[in-house]
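FAQ: What does the model actually see?

It sees only this:
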Amino acid sequence: MRVAIMGVDGYLGWSLAQYLASYGHVIGGMDAYLRRDWVAEVGSHSATPIAKMTERLDAFYQVFGKSLRFVRGDITEYEKVKEFLRGFKPDCIVHLAEMPSAPYSMISANHCTWTHANNLAGTINLLYIMKEEFPECHLLKLGTMGEYGTPNVAIPEGFFDIAYRGRTDTLPFPRQPGSWYHCTKVHDSVNIHLACKLWGLRSTDIMQGVVYGVTLPEMLTDPRLLTRFDFDEAFGTAINRFVAQALVGVPLTPYGKGRQARGFLPLCDSMQCFRLAIENPPEQGEYRVLNQFEDVYFLDELANMVAHEANEVGYSDIKAEVANIENPRLEAEEHYYNPDRKKLLDLGYKPNGDIRGTIRSMLCTVAEYMYRINSHKHVLIPKIRWDGTKDTCQRL
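And it is asked to produce this:
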């Protein structure tokens, strides 16, 4: 299949390009390098050194024996996006070209409005281009389990059956976003669902859990193929941050009580699920929702797991410890959490099932770049608060 990845320079985008190429798919990609800019803006960088795109493309060709057709461009530039997709003629468009950080969206009014403008305009551009140019194409858009919030009932995959005042219907499950970023994802879901009904487009909305990990087998052949490993409060996901903290001897910092439950999955599982969704598209006119995670964990459970593995591996002279800090977010500290994930299993998803082994592998890989974390240790303690204050979070 011909797969166009919007946001191909990012953590997931660059990983997916390699993973799909190893399965014989033809890959094209577009990116404006904004992830690099955002991380620099919050005072950080990737722990793994990220090569220039020209170097990445050379390595891609040498390893996979085929070119990745790349265009530098912004998802909000309608004509630029249309020109790229016209030239590439995709069977599937994977939409990863959004600002993906809840904390970043909460920094200020400008960050909030920019996140809305970028994320919503980019998705609407793709929908109109598909309507006009590629009505048979499959849009696979990255959503987030965070759209659902933490309701006190089980979370279905997108839709649920309801009986109310003597009548029944199947309706979208209520969304309860917890940040401005999550609001944009909810708006995306509504817009894509409507486009499928209005124009007969086909789309998969991936409600993905928190991804952790740093390498795929394809990346180990050439260091230029490495993907990002962010560890700052805005773009470093929980386990990745815990790994970075353990390696440089900084206490691991679950927020608040650490009893928030979330769905997590390793990078290799995320790639497997994307491939299954791409190779098994929905019907024309169908808006399909897939919940994508390996398992549900508590944040303090994960922090203790990383600390244990770090102490076993012994890369740091300082014993890794867990030290809960004030929660900069406004969220339930303890809650019910029971999401479904049946559809991907039906498509053939086989969960990795070895979270400790994956954490150990991450520690061993990232230890080589410990100096890059040490030089930016200041970003490991959160300063972005949901209530708008500027105080640094203190230990509990």
